[in-house]
Amino acid sequence: TIDELNLSRRTLIIVTSDNGPVVDDGYQDQAVELLGDHKPAGSLRGGKYSAFDGGTRVMFIVAWKGKIKPGVSDALFSQIDMMASFAALTGQKMPAGAGPDSFDNLHLLLGKSKKDRIWLIEHALNGRLSLIKGDWKHIEPGPGTKILKETNIETGNDPEPQLYNLRQDIGEKNNVAQENPSTVKELTDLLHRI
Q: What are the tens digits of pLDDT across the range 64-80?
């Protein structure tokens, strides 16, 4: 329709999701029975409601004919950045105090640079906060059930700190917090400051 209306060169298209997958969220749609070998979160651990990246890392597809070249990026970007990025795109100034954690990353959206955020805070639906900085992801310790029985999803809740090297372990299988206490402290302190 956009092409038919001759709007493709003036239209930025974004396709994304608000959270990771959940197969059985109380609907009677046979999703669990029909799932077969399909893994909706791929190699990511967790799903909707989870502090693991299966719950918070979502697909983000951007297209703009004549403005964005096709490609793939592993740059750190948050949907929250859309506020500041769209303000920059439209030449608007954000009001004082608006979007304090929204960064102008228009250059990433347009594929003009791969320079990404220094850090990203994730807030899982279970209330747990995580911080990604560089290759590291820290999930703050806290109480709560480890698996949601209703959805069969790991929450990421743990009374001990969790630290994962996402470059080496995208599936967050190996908690390396005990072997890296200085990194845990650095990320914990940064999370508290932010």
A: 999 999 999 889 999 99
Rounded to an integer, what is the distance from CA 95 to the centroid of its chain? Answer: 25
Q: For residue 167, how many other CB atoms are within 10 A of its CB? A: 10
Residue type, 55: G
Look up residue 175 and give its two tokens: 């908690």
pTM (whole model) above 0.85: yes
Give the tokens for residue 17. Answer: 């999701």
**d(C-alpha 191, C-alpha 15), whole Å:** 29
CB atoms within 10 A of CB 97: 6
Task: Compute the distance between CA of residue 163 and CA of residue 175 in angstroms, rounded to an integer.
Answer: 5
Q: Within 13 Å of residue 141, how many CA atoms lie on the same side as its CB?
A: 9
Question: What token pair was written down for 64?
Answer: 């703009």
